[in-house]
Automatic annotation (TrEMBL):
Pfam families per UniProt: ATP-synt_DE_N (PF02823), ATPD_C_metazoa (PF21335)
Keyword Acetylation assigned: yes
Role description: Subunit delta, of the mitochondrial membrane ATP synthase complex (F(1)F(0) ATP synthase or Complex V) that produces ATP from ADP in the presence of a proton gradient across the membrane which is generated by electron transport complexes of the respiratory chain. ATP synthase complex consist of a soluble F(1) head domain - the catalytic core - and a membrane F(1) domain - the membrane proton channel. These two domains are linked by a central stalk rotating inside the F(1) region and a stationary peripheral stalk.
Keyword tags: Acetylation, ATP synthesis, CF(1), Hydrogen ion transport, Ion transport, Membrane, Mitochondrion, Mitochondrion inner membrane, Transit peptide, Transport
Originating species: Diaphorina citri
Principal location listed in the UniProt entry: mitochondrion
Oligomer and partners: Component of the ATP synthase complex composed at least of ATP5F1A/subunit alpha, ATP5F1B/subunit beta, ATP5MC1/subunit c (homooctomer), MT-ATP6/subunit a, MT-ATP8/subunit 8, ATP5ME/subunit e, ATP5MF/subunit f, ATP5MG/subunit g, ATP5MK/subunit k, ATP5MJ/subunit j, ATP5F1C/subunit gamma, ATP5F1D/subunit delta, ATP5F1E/subunit epsilon, ATP5PF/subunit F6, ATP5PB/subunit b, ATP5PD/subunit d, ATP5PO/subunit OSCP.
Family label: Belongs to the ATPase epsilon chain family.
GO MF entries: proton-transporting ATP synthase activity, rotational mechanism
Domain called F1F0-ATP synthase delta subunit C-terminal: residue spans: 161-202
Superkingdom of this protein's organism: Eukaryota
Residues covered by the ATP synthase F1 complex delta/epsilon subunit N-terminal domain: 75-155
Keyword Ribonucleoprotein: no
Protein name, UniProt field: ATP synthase F(1) complex subunit delta, mitochondrial
Amino acid sequence: MASLMKSSRMAARLVTSATRVARRGYADQMDFTLASGNKVFYTNQNVKQVSSRMAARLVTSATRLARRGYADQMDFTLASGNKVFYTNQNVKQVDVPSFSGAFGILPNHVPTLAILKPGVITVYETEGVSQKIFVSSGTITVNDDSSVQIIAEEAHPVDSLDASAARDVLSKAQSELSSASSETAKAEAQIAVEVAEALVAAAS
């Protein structure tokens, strides 16, 4: 709560400063306030000019802070080589598998960059509505404006997976791992086994 109040106050200060700059433009003198989370630079100080570029940056920063402080949804994009599932769609939560551990993404999540692990992404669109999508690999990016992008190598809705076909894929991958002779072939086969195991688990 303290962090939320701090962000809200900071956003209010930035909005006030940016609005003054935008409204008064290049008047001979103007009261100017510039503050950040760690320092107050100006407080109602008379200055002659503030560039429009600075005003734009202030507005952008204020908008981001306000969005992070009050958002209960986030813009979500999920795309793979075979299909685009979401494009800047508002969702409430996304649960993802990653090599650093499975985790949930909510609005106001800290900026993050992670590598997808083979498994199931669960997207909570609205209350009581969710979608499960299997991904083989890819990247997860959580931006400072609460938007989230997931780019997957391959992705399919869980309800479209065939359990029998998944087991066949796993059996073939295990056979290739057993017969691999070089370190490169073994590494590639091991990756195939891990993806197939996750696929079987998702389809079961």
